[in-house]
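haha ok so turns out i had the wrong file open the whole time. this is the CORRECT one, sorry everyone. sequence first:
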Amino acid sequence: MKTTKPVRISDILLFLLFSSLFGYCILHPEYYHSGSKAKSTLKLQPLRLTAELAVFAAGTALLLLGKRITEHLKKYARPLSIALTLLTPGIAFAFTYFITHSIPKNYSPENYRNLAHSPEIIFWNILTAAMLLLLFLIITNSMRAACSLLVFISIIFCIANYYVCRFRDIPILASDLYSWRTAAAVAGSYSYKPNFACLIALQTGLVYFFAFRCLGNTRLFSLKRRLAFTGAGCIALGIFAKGFLFSDFLQSRGVSFSMFKPLVAYNSNGTYLAVIRSFQYLKIDRPENYSADGAAGIAAGYPSDKATASDDYPNIIIIIDEAFSDLGVVGDLETNTDYMPFIHSLQENTIHGYTYASVLGGGTANSEFEVLTGNSIALLPQNCIAFQVYLKNEMPSLVSACADLGYQGLIAVHPYNASNYGRMTAYPLLGFQTYLSKSDFPKDAPRIRNYISNMAVNDMIIQKYEEAKASSDSPFLFYTMTMQNHSSYRKEPTNLQDTIQLPVHPDAEAQQYLNLIKHSDEAFEELTGYFSQTDDPTVILYLGDHQPNMNTEFLNSITDGEYENWNDEEMMKRYAVPFILWSNYDMPAKEYEKTSMNFLQSILFENCNLPMTGYQKYLLDFAREVPAFTANGYWGADGGFYTKDDTSSPYYETVQEYCSLIYNNLKDIRNRPEGFYELLTD
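then structure:
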């Protein structure tokens, strides 16, 4: 008489988990219906319901009949396990593809490359999954365990990515490893309702596990063979890591990773490759001969001033105007009338000139980072966004210095999506106490094209200034990164005055852009007009973040065909943007032929006669030898143009000192010299 084996507790738990997922889906009709439940417009989606029922039926059958199936397949367990193991990298990739593509797109469809049309990208993703599987096989020596680990880690990661995208519009980045404590602290405040793709993927993953279970826990190798397999596997993983992970191979194959549109990278390149590219952005060049003691030695020569509060300090308004620039620095730009007449006319109580950005046509947040911290992005990987990758702890900044000086307000405004470039995390870490975005503007706020206008931002500045001054005489700090002039310039707008014409070098995009700049000029005139009527001393630092992308034909036309042949120094004209430091009180006029974003806060504090940090003082000294320093190169006081790593430059050692301080401030934060990047406080 055969004895019936008792039901294992693990079987009961697995069935409860599996049936709970099924029940949850069935009890929520929105998962297999389209339309709105609230509006009673639900329409059945039969494919979804059929898939849900089929997955549940398959999983239930495998659980209830698992022992019988195991007995019937006993002779074929090993070859079937090997076959399923070989298929698992593709299966895991399919799960990642399915879940990732269910995440709502936060950019226009044309930004998303169809991964199904990229067999090479699919191959590299599956190869990466295979390497992960090889690692798990080495660790577990079990095909079932290794394959299950790969599949469920992939599914759980993508589900987590789905939630992260829901909460902040940005997928998981490698830099999030540094902020997991912060994420855990706020995790309880979110809703965790999954979408259909997450639910069905998790259930299908369980069906996959149940199927592998029916084949038994097939051990891969005996001890001797396992040692040989481990050795060979480690060699294969080493070759893969060196040639694939720690190289520019993926970049050479067109696998890009836009930090402005990271979800696009996940959709276009696949989850595995996107994660690899994200990790590659964590690397920062360690300067030659860097040491914490060396950084401390530099800092010792620049003691910080004491933070002393005073109501006599000027109000500070900083406006970084999206894509604001003067294309006249690029070439012979002939227009029917001046496109920035007010700014060109400024003379009294004005410091002005050209500041050089490290970015062109995008990467706005990196210009913000350089202005606010004094750190150049020259050490960062190309296309890396410092806000997202390196700003994971509080960082001394222009804002924190103003806070130490008793400034009120400490407001940051970006009249677009709050989450762009990780600003929701970055701004508080820089010292801002309030962050306002598009949703904080009135619904009827003036717009130009589809973006909130600079005039609307002016209204916000004035409103917050008056509210602050009604309750306190402390100086006021306000910072904004605008949106009005953002690309593209292809669609013909209905709400933009077309007063600027290009009679000699006609170009529709350039003409639209110049008309936007005219609006920026008018908005700046309006704002200075308001503050010129106030008794409160006020300075406004106004600049662009970068020049816009313009088509090559237009740039060639205004440079007599020379643009395409420009050398590196000539190409720097494309990185020049105007800056203006305007005041409503007596301030000696000054013109800077060249400076760069990282020096602007020192210029601001020096000309406002504010107490300065040691770092700000150092930057002023550095600027005397290197007037403009960017990620693309720098000018020395001798007028020569050099790259950061040019050892023949007479400023090479000086540049390496600055790079050491950047590295210390960004990467070696535990060894920051005390009281160097900050004002001295009691």
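The radius of gyration is 30 Å.
again sry for the mixup
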